[in-house]
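Sample 1 of the test manifest.
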Amino acid sequence: MISFRTTSSKISPAAFTPLAEEVLAGLSACPKTLPPKLFYDEHGSRLFEQITELPEYYLTRTEREIFAEYATEIVSQAGNNLTLVELGAGSASKTRLLVEALARRQLRVGFYPVDVSASALRQAVSTLNGHIRNLRVHPIVTDYSKHMPLLSFPGQKLVLFIGSTIGNFETDEAVEFLRRVRGSLRPGDALLLGFDMVKDPSQLHAAYNDSQGVTAQFNKNVLARINRELGGQFDLEEFDHVAFWNPGMSRIEMHLESRLEQKVWVRDLGMVFHFAAGDRIHTENSYKFTSSSIAAMLSRGGFRPERTWTDPNQWFSTVLARR
Ligand code: AVJ
């Protein structure tokens, strides 16, 4: 568990990129962690798109079903003449159903997708722009977990935080995040949230341990990314993808487990990281919700749930909330 800095004096911590800072902090921590947002470089965003099409990964498909059935109801419940903002938009493939529903109800639709991944946003722009005549897409590349974009255009907005991305936050972080979103909303604005619900553990397990190994590749991509962008020397073969349901915490946990004792050099950090056999890097928590955990979290965040839509199996929930 010992990590040490080499004596190279050329590297000044002040000059570290945001990626280098996060990797340094995470791999120096005990136990080691890396935040899930680091999955989403161009390669990782593509792997995530592949995950959403896996037979075991019911989340995206189920949320899309809810939108396909209720998009018109959802946007009319939200208000009139809305501008759409999506936090963590990714490729915005499900959002299209909501955008189309809005475009049928109003003359013009402005859509502001916000994401850390520029490549995912390019995808979003190309799937939407040009296809819907009265739509204008204004992509914003930013890490919204650090900087909430100033959403100060006139008129009412509908802010989307869908896909159960909120499940990546610890409960206190989610509450803090909701309060910050609330601060950027005016009375009458609405927030639409997607929550993956607690369900049969074997179904949850399968969704994060797919038979084609795409989730394993997605998890390991964070190491591949450190190799590509920071001159890391991780051997992806020497780490196992580990994902399991933690019932006490109501979450799926993903880890990368070292198969053997090893030391890994990361050039741009000027650091060697030591792993004992079986040591893990905790890469993701994906919290699963119940209607009461959703209500409690929203109320702590300063929101009131106005209406909920779900699928026939109640695997996923779409909640419209107001400040
Ligand atoms: C995008 C956070 C909703 O937790 O299911 C998919 C990411 N991780 N497979 C999720 C993910 C592993 C996903 N979220």
